[in-house]
Queue: 2 jobs
Job 1
Amino acid sequence: MDDRIAQFIAGLRAAGVRVSLAESADAFRATALLGVADRAAFRSALRATLVKENKDAPVFERLFPMYFSSGGPPLIPPDQALTPDQQKMLEAALRALAGDLSRLLQMLASGQNPSRAELERLAQQSGGRWGRRPEQQPQITRQMLRQLGLDALAKQIERLLQQLAQMGMSAEGQAAIRQLLAANREALVEQASQAAGQSLARQLAEQPPEKFDEADLLQRPFNDLSEAEARELRRLVTRLAAKLRSRAALRQRKGDGKTLDAKTTLRANLRTAGVPFTLHFKKRHLKPKFALICDISTSMRPVAEFMLRLMYELQDQVGQARSFAFNDHLEEVSDEFILHRPDEAIPLVLHRIPPGYYATDLGFGLQNFCAQHLDAVDRRTTVIFLGDGRNNFRDPRLDLFEQIKRRARRVVWFNPELRFQWHTGDSDMPQYAPLCDAVHQVSNLDELTDAVDRLFTSRG
Amino acid sequence: MFNGTADVMEALGRQQYIASDEIATVLFLAERLGKPVLAEGPAGVGKTELAKAWASATGRPLIRLQCYEGLDETKALYEWEYSKQMLYTQLLREKLSQLLSDAATLTEAADRLASEDNVFFSPRFLLPRPLLQGILSETPVTLLIDEIDRADAEFEAFLLEVLSDFQVSVPELGTLTAKHPPLVLLTSNNTRELSEALKRRCVYLHIDYPTLESELRVVRLKVPDLSPQLARQAVELVQRLRGLDLRKSPSVSETLDWARALVLLNAKSLDQRTLDTTLSLLLKHEADLQRARRGLSRAERDEAPGRAEDDPAMFRRLKGPRP
C-alpha cells in the first residue's frame, strides 16, 4: 500500500500539485493511523495532508480512483439473473453461433471477468504506454473498448436475440438477457476505465515531472511561451508577488517616523497615568493608488494577463486599484477581480472584451476613460498604461493623455516591445513617451516584476 | 484523546455541531499527529463554531486570537509591562540604594545591579497575549487563530515557529516550550493566498456550504421551534439562492438567523410578504437582493411558462404542499 501511496503522490506532483516531503511523510503517518479499511476515511486522510489548496481538490478527486480502486464491479454470472431454462437456452444459442459471436459478447453473456493481466495488456496496447497526462484516461478507455469490439456489440446482441427467438425463448426471457448484457456491459466499461487509469497512473509515476529552468523562463519573452511554460510562470508569479509584497510592506513600515502621534501616544500611556513611557510616531501610510489601463489586443494578451495577475496578488499593499481594459473600446474590469480570484477573473475579462485584428484604438479608449472613469484618477493615483502604443494609425488623442497626466500623481508606461521597435510602423510610442514620468520595457516576467516593484518605491 | 473518527463525530454532536466525515477525520488526525488544522471556506459555514465545539468536546478551554491587518507580536504573543517594571523600581528604590550603598566604585555598583537583572526581566513582568497564554497554560487548551488571511504576511511567517514546535523565543528569557501542545485551529476566508510554509505545517480542511440535507439537520438542531415543513422550504430557498450568481451567497449562519426570524415572526409559510420583509437577513447587498428577487421569479416562470411576470404567485413553489 505504501508503494501505491508513493505512486499517488508522484502522480499528484506530475499533475501540478505541490507536495513537499514533509507533507508526504504526514500522509504516510495519517494513513497508518486510520488504516485502509474505511475507504472514506483513508481518502480524507490523504486529502487533508496532501492537498492544501482548494483549487487542487479536483485533481485529487480525479486521481484518487485511478490509484485506489477496487478494479471495478465484477460481471454478473448468468445463473444469478436467469432461470435454469433460460440459461440452458442461452448456452445453446451461444454454441450455435460460436463462430459468429465476438469474444466480447461471449464474455458478457457468460459473466466471465477478464483477468487483470488481460486488461493491463489491453490498456498498454491502447495507448497507456504513451500516457503523459491524467486527462488521457477516457481516451484510452475508449480505445480499449474499441479493441474489445464494443462498436459491433449492438448488432451482435440483436443476432443473439434473434437466435434465441428462433429457439423459442419467451419475450420475457429475451428481456432478462438483454438486461443482463446491458448491466455487464456497464461493469466492463468501468473495469476498462479503471484499468486505463491504473496503467496511466503507473506511467505518470515513473516519468519525472516537467522541469523548467526558472531563470530562463523569467527572461523569456511573453510571446514566446508554450502553454506548459506559461502555466509554470503563473505559479512563479504567486511567489514573485509574495516577495514584492514583503518588500513593499517593509518600505511602508519605515514611513518617515519623525512626527509624534499625540493621540496614539496619549492613549497608549493611559495606564501610566499619562506619563509617556512609549512614544508613538505617525506612520505614513503610503499605500499607493493605481489606475491600470491595459491593452488586451491579441498580441498583448500574455503580458496583460501577467500584469493583472501581479497587480491583484499585490492587492493588500495597494490602497486602491482600478483596472480598465481596452481593445477597440475601454471598459472597467475591476469588479471581475474583486469578485473572483485572478485565475477565474482573467478568462472572464478576456471573454468580455473579444479580440479583434487591427482594432486597437487607445485614442478612443482614452475618450471612453475621460468620459466615464476620470474619477479613478486623483493626485494620489499612479496611472499605468500597459500597451505597445500601436494605434493602427488612428488619432492618439494626446490631449486626453495630457489631461489624465495633469490629474494624476504619475503616469507610467509599460511596453512589452523591445525599445528599438518603438519607433517603427504604427507605434505612437514616440509621442506618448515624453508625456510619461517613466517608461519601462516589460518584455519578460523579470522586467515586469522589476517595473511593478518600482511602482512601490516612493519615487515610483 | 479520541479513539476514532466516529468518536470525534459523536463528541462534536454532543456540542450541537454536526460534523461531516471529513471534518471528523481531519480533527482526529490533527490531534494524533499533533498538527494544527487549517480550515478554509466561505464566511459563515461554521469554522469558528467548529473550534468552539472542538474545545468543549475535548474539555480544553478555548483561547482565541482574532487576526487583523497590522496585528503584531506584542498583541499576539507577549509584551513587557514597562509600567509595572517602573513602578517596582520606584517602590524598591530604598532597597536598591541599600544594596548599592557599600559599592566602592561606580563599576561595582553597575555590576551588582546587572546581577539583579533577572528580577526585572522575569515572567513576573511578562504580559502574555493569546499565543503565549496557550503555550504557557498549565492545562491543555485549544487555540483558535481566527481569519489568519487578514493578518500580514510577516505575522504569518512569525507564526511558523509557534505552530511547528509550539515554542516561543523571548530574547530576555530564552525559549519557552509548551507544557501541553495545544490543539490549534486556524481559519481563513481565503481572501488571500497563504504561504506554502504555513500550509505545509497544517492539516488542511475545506469546509464548503453544506448539502440540503445536512443544512436542514443543522437548522432543525439549532432552531427546533421552526416547523419541519417550513424549515425544509427555507433551506431549499437558501440552496437555490446559492445557485445564483451573487456577490455574497447566504451562509449557514445567515440561514440560522433567518430561521430564527421566521420563528419570531410566527410565519406559517414562505409567502411573498414574509420573503419581502425577511430576505434582507439572508442577502446583505442591495444588488443581491434585487437579483435574487428576479432570479426567484425567473425560476418560477421557467417552471410554469406563460405566467405573467408580476404574478403574486411567483413564489408558489415555496409555499405549502406542492401541486
Job 2
Amino acid sequence: MDKTPNQKAWFLVLPVLVLVAFSAVVPLMTVVNYSVQDTFGDNEFFWAGLEWFEEMLGSDRLWNALGRQVMFSAIVLAIQVPLGIFIALNMPKKGFWASVCLVLMSLPLLIPFNVVGTIWQIFGRVDIGLLGHTLAVLGLDYNYTSDAFDAWATIIVMDVWHWTSLIALLCYAGLQSIPQAYYQAAKIDQASRWKVFRYIELPKMRGVLLIAVLLRFMDSFMIYTEPFVVTGGGPGNATTFLSIDLVKMAVGQFDLGPAAAFSIMYFLVILLVSWVFYTVMTNIDKEEVR
Amino acid sequence: MARITLSNLAHSYFADPKGEADFALKQMDHVWEDGGAYALLGSSGCGKTTLLNIISGLVRPSQGRVLFGDRDVTDAATSDRNIAQVFQFPVVYDTMTVRDNLAFPLRNRGMDPAYVASRVAQIARMIGMEAELGRKARGLTADAKQKISLGRGMVREDVNAILFDEPLTVIDPHMKWELRTQLKSLHREFGHTMIYVTHDQTEALTFADRVVVMYDGRVVQTGTPQDLFDTPEHTFVGYFIGSPGMNLLEAAVEGNRATVAGVSLPLGAAYGTPRGHVQIGIRPEFVSLTAAEGLPVTIRRIEDVGRHRIVRADFNGTEINAVVEEGTTLSPDMTRLVFAPERIGVYADDWRVSPQGRQPGRAA
C-alpha cells in the first residue's frame, strides 16, 4: 500500500494546541510576565529581571512558609498512609457491610473543601462547638484560635478525617484484586499474618499506593481552603502555608511581582518533588524485575 | 505421613442446604491410603477442588469428619495439618527471589538454614531452575512461576500429603510431560501421599496408581487405570475414560440377552431383569465391522488417528464408535457392527449391574 504524504494532518492537532495554550500556557506566561516586571500603577511596567526572585529567596517569609508546608505534608502523609492501609485491611471484603463501609468512607471525600473547613471551624469552637466545648468541659486548655499547637492539631485531624478515605479506598481496591489462591497458598506455606501483609498484600497494593501517596502529597502541599476557613493562617503566622501566604501577598497586599515570583518557585518545587518521587518509585520497580 | 480418611463427609456452599442438589459434595466415605499416588479425575465443577480444599483445611466441611491417621483434624487449621498444596494458577511471592520463594515454607517452620539451603538446591535442580535462583520471581513467565509453585509444594519432606489442583494447566505440553515424570519419580523416592486433581484423563492415567473418578459431587469409582477401562462402574466413567469413550445404547436386558431396537444381542453373562433406565455399554475397542451380521448402521466417517482408525457410525440416531486396528481392511459393504459379548456392560440408572443379578455395586 502506498502512503501519500499529507502534512494537512497537523491541523488536526490544532484544537488541542489551542486548548492547552489557553488553559495552561497563557496563564502561566502571564505570571512569568509579572514576575520579571515592576509597576508604579497606571498600567506602566518596567523590566525588573530576576529582582523579585532574589528578593523572595532572600526573605524569611517564603522559607518559613515552606518549612511549615513541608512539615504539614510530612505529618499528614505519615498519619494517613499507614492509617489508610490499616482501614483497608480491616474493611469487610464483601456483603452488605462492605457496601455500608464504602459509602461511609466516601462521604468525607464528597464534601466541598470550604464546607469541611466550616464544619471543623464550628466543631472546634470552645463556646458552641461539640469538640471544643467537650474538651473545655474535660478541663483541657484547647483553643485553636490562640494556641499554635491546637491550631495545628485541629488542621491535621481535619485533613486526616477528610482525606484518609482516599488512601483507604485505593488500597481497598488493590486488596480486592488479589486472587484468593494467594491467601490459600500462604496458609499452606504457614505464613504469619505479618508475612502475608509483607509479601502478598503490600506488593500487590504498591501501584495504587504510589498513586495515593503522590496525590496526597500534591494536595497537601497545595492546601488552602480548609486552613483558611478554620484559622485564616493564624494564630500569628502559625498555620500560614505556602498558598495562604501567596494569596495574602497577591490579593491582600497586591504585590504582584513578588507574588508571581513566589508562584513560579512554588510550582517548580511541586513539579520537582513529584518528578523525583515518581522516578524513584518506577526505578525501584524496574530493578525488581531485573 | 498418614492415611487420610473422609468419614460421612458432605459439603454445601449454602448456609442452609435444602436438598441434595445444594451440595457441592454429596455424602461420601473415602480412604486415601498412606503413600498412594492418586489422581482425582472429573469434569469441571464436579467438586474436585472442594474435596481437595477440605483435605487441606481451606474449607471446613458442612458435615462429616476428616482424619489423618487416627487424629481428627476436621477443625484443625491448615497450618496444623502439614499439607502441601499446589494450585491451578501460579502463586509466587513477587518481591522475593526464586530461592526465597522455595525456602519460604521451610523458613516459616523454623528449619535450620543449612538444611533449607541444601533442600532448595535439590528442588531447584528438580524443576530445572538452578540458574534463576537469584532472580526476583516477578517478571518470570507463567511456566516458570508455576514451576516455582510446584517446587514450593514439594520442598517440605515431612508433609502428610501433597495435593495438586490441576497444576499443569498453564505449562506447555513438553514441560508438562517432564514435570509429570518428575512428580512420579518424586513419589517413588519419598513415598508421599499425592492427590492429583485433573480433568485430563491422560494426565490422570500416567500419573496415578489409583484413579478416583468424581461425577456430580460424588466419587463414582476408584481403581487402577485398567479397572476403569475394563469395568466402569458408572456410565460417566465409561465415556469420560477412553478416547473415544464407551458407546452406550438403550436396551432391554433379559438374562444373557439384550435387545437393542429390536435386534437381539448375546451378553457375556446373565443379568436377570434389571429395572430402571437400562443401557448397555461397549468400548469402541471391542466393536468390529462386518458385512453379514450384527447391528445395521450407517457409517458417517472414518478418522485415521495414526495407530488406528476410528469409525463413526450412526444407529437410529445414536452414535456408535468403533476402533479399527491398523492393517484391518475395510470395505464399503461392511455396514454392520458386532460387539464382543464378554465386553458388554449392563447399566441400570447409570450404575453398572453385576452379572448374576446382583445389586448395582456402588463404588465407595
